[in-house]
Design goal:
Elements lengths: L1 H30 L3 E8 L2 H20 L6 H4 L5 H13 L10 E5 L6 E8 H27 L3 H16 L6 E4 L2 E4 H15 E10 L7 E9 L2 E2 L2 E7 L4 E8 L2 E6 L6 E6 L4 H7 L1 H9 L9 E5 L14 E4 L4 H10 L20 H16 L11 H11 L3 E4 L6 E4 L5 E11 L6 E10 L5 E6 L3 H7 L8 H20 L2 H6 L1 E12 L23 E6 L1 H13 L4 E14 L8 E12 L3 E11 L6 E8 L8 H7 L3 E2 L1
Parallel strand pairs: 20-25
Antiparallel strand pairs: 1-3, 2-3, 4-5, 6-7, 6-14, 7-8, 7-11, 9-10, 9-12, 12-13, 15-17, 16-17, 17-18, 18-19, 20-21, 22-23, 22-26, 23-24, 24-25
Helix pairs in contact: 2-4, 5-6, 6-7, 7-10, 8-9
Length: 643
């Protein structure tokens, strides 16, 4: 009996000691002033952990309340309850439950309840806050880059996301801007307002259509610092409701009306991008669940559509109209956060074709046929392949000619004369999506239209024809035409063409944006990319056959696809004898839109230019530019030198 009792005591003692050690360990943390702790007990682990985190937030809120230097501007500081509630909401936005430096101890010694202690070292709180500050600085840098490139949707998105994080931050954040130590909350508030005030909208041509629902197509022209806007999202009021989002592309957008507005046209620029924010970054998602983003009344503008004599301001001659903004306010805004636009790239001076009357007549006939909806009447102006391609292009959505085109023609130095351009608007059923593209026509030696393609943006084309580059004009035209064909092939879902431009042994790496974490160069599988904070991207490496099969399934699941290429870097490659002839590395910004997926990133291509048409030997995609994902690193990874 004594032996049995001894065995029971020996077996029970470790449990008692263990329970006691957990309890004592909890108490040590609670008594240690170098830690902030939150403890709670409940019948389930989930309830106890949730309550412990709430208690931890309360403890941290009290300790950092003195550093909320912006609190007074956000709330009535006379109400202490509101003041503390405001602090709590900001601290809670950090999602302490998911941070690796927030510890946890679980005590399950009592069979009736579970106790959880959550703790964090006081010295590490500053590091947690610093991580958010770094993200704010990164967002502002991305916004500045977008603004310089006239990608106003990118600028507004990142500036507003940075401001949203700042609103939820426990202290003021400063940054050197134009040589001055600047309060970023004040700067961002001013900057976003300044963007709205600097945007100009011109009302262009109004076209009557045969559609009884969308009877009128109204063309708008958007500029920023007197340069055409590259990208911008907005909604407009059609007389019954706000319609959108509508996308500005190459400075233009088409609005549809059953009845034209009589006195004013109301627009509302998009700047919050809340759904994208929640998928882009878990911290943004947490902040948006606890803090309301700032509203900007200047995002809503009204444009007069009648002049002083009550005549419609709708004509082929564009009249630039600024949104109604208080002049004094505008001047004050500009002095704090002036607009920033990158200088135009110095281009090679390309001479238009001198004798182009025959080509202009052909383009005019094609334009008339498109307006009349009867392409068959100009079939004889095309080669069989050219006609089939243009007919396929016109069939991807409801199509209409935009404005009164002015055509220019260039000798590409190769087999084609290039005619630019026929602006077309494509509209899709369902969600009312639409996009506008300029179409380039390539004429063969018999003056037949041999192929057509969506043109590149001005930014992308400027980079290709940059005067500082040392390679020949014919090569530039070949690269431009190839990139035009590439983006057009995706819009038209031309699997056979895409299959033909990849070498059989091509290295193909794709990425799909999932949620959020690092950036850098590609890795296979689901590993995050090293080197920073950006969307989490799932990377996969494919053979040519696997990639084409995947692409076919993707095309089948989408009503439409729209690729937009922007700024790019191009280097002639020293292939060290691997390729006997010209070869180029290209890094180009790609925005991908469809009815069920969208992303923006950088496409990396290695082009073999030996044949009649360029061939892709390596294709990769990364979500953001960085030192770890530069074109040089891309070329070096595949042992190709650039110059």
């Amino acid at each position: 009996m004594k032996y049995l009792l001894y065995v029971l005591i020996i077996c029970w003692l470790p449990v008692a000691v263990k329970g006691q050690s957990v309890s004592e360990k909890m108490k040590r943390y609670q008594d240690d002033s170098s830690y902030k702790c939150g403890k709670a007990c409940a019948s389930s682990y989930e309830e106890a952990d949730r309550a412990a985190l709430e208690n931890l937030v309360s403890q941290i809120s009290v300790s950092v309340s003195a550093s909320f230097s912006e609190s007074e501007s956000q709330i009535d500081s006379g109400d202490q309850t509101d003041y503390q509630r405001n602090i709590d909401s900001r601290v809670r936005s950090f999602s302490f439950g998911t941070l690796p430096n927030v510890g946890q101890i679980i005590d399950e010694s009592n069979p009736d309840e579970v106790c959880v202690l959550r703790y964090v070292k006081v010295s590490e709180l500053e590091g947690i806050f610093k991580e958010r500050e770094n993200k704010i600085h990164d967002f502002i840098a991305s916004g500045m880059e977008g603004e310089k490139r006239l990608q106003i949707d990118v600028a507004l998105r990142y500036y507003n996301w940075a401001l949203t994080l700042l609103i939820a931050h426990p202290k003021s954040v400063y940054q050197e801007i134009d040589g001055k130590r600047t309060n970023l909350k004040v700067w961002l508030d001013t900057k976003i307002n300044n963007i709205f005030n600097t945007l100009k909208v011109g009302i262009g041509e109004c076209t009557e259509t045969d559609n009884p629902i969308d009877r009128y197509d109204l063309c708008l022209h958007f500029s920023y610092m007197d340069q055409e806007v590259s990208d911008l999202d907005f909604h407009y009021f059609n007389g019954e409701r706000y319609v959108g989002p509508c996308k500005v592309h190459k400075g233009m957008a088409i609005l549809n009306f059953e009845r034209l507005p009589q006195r004013e046209l109301r627009l509302r620029y998009d700047y919050k991008f809340e759904n994208q924010a929640k998928n882009f970054d878990p911290e943004l998602r947490a902040v948006l669940e606890t803090v309301n983003p700032q509203n900007f009344p200047n995002a809503s503008v009204s444009l007069p559509v009648k002049d002083d004599k009550n005549k419609p301001v709708v004509s082929a001659q564009v009249r630039m109209l600024e949104a109604r903004v208080n002049a004094a306010s505008k001047a004050a805004v500009a002095s704090i956060a002036p607009p920033i636009v990158a200088p135009d790239v110095v281009r090679l001076k390309l001479k238009p074709l001198a004798n182009s009357a025959d080509f202009a007549d052909i383009m005019k006939q094609v334009e008339t046929a498109v307006r009349n909806g009867n392409l068959g009447e100009v079939r004889a102006l095309f080669t069989p392949e050219g006609y089939e391609l243009f007919d396929q292009m016109l069939s991807i959505g409801g199509v209409s000619v935009v404005g009164e085109p002015v055509y220019t023609f260039y000798d590409s130095g190769g087999p084609y004369i290039i005619g630019k351009s026929l602006p077309l608007n494509f509209k899709f059923k369902g969600r009312g999506n639409s996009f506008m593209e300029d179409v380039a026509f390539r004429f063969n030696k018999e003056h037949k239209i041999a192929s057509v393609a969506f043109t590149l943006t001005k930014r992308a084309e400027d980079d290709i024809f940059k005067a500082a580059s040392k390679w020949g004009e014919a090569s530039r035209y070949a690269i431009m035409s190839f990139m035009e064909d590439y983006q057009t092939a995706y819009a038209l879902k031309r699997i056979d063409y895409i299959k033909s431009i990849f070498s059989d042994d091509a290295i193909i790496i794709t990425g799909v944006v999932c949620q959020a974490v690092g950036k850098g160069f590609f890795q296979e599988g689901t590993d995050p990319l090293p080197g920073g904070k950006a969307p989490t991207v799932r990377y996969n490496r494919y053979t040519k056959g696997e990639y084409i099969d995947k692409l076919q399934r993707s095309f089948a699941s989408k009503d439409f696809i729209h690729l937009v290429f922007e700024d790019n870097a191009i280097k002639k490659i020293n292939t060290n004898g691997v390729i006997d002839g010209e070869s180029y590395g290209i890094q180009i910004k790609q925005s991908y839109f469809s009815d069920n997926y969208a992303d923006t990133g950088y496409l990396m291509l290695m082009l073999d230019m030996r044949g009649e048409y360029p061939m892709i030997r390596v294709r990769a995609w990364i979500p953001e530019k960085s030192d770890d994902a530069s074109l040089d690193k891309f070329l070096n990874r595949f042992r190709l030198g650039g110059n």
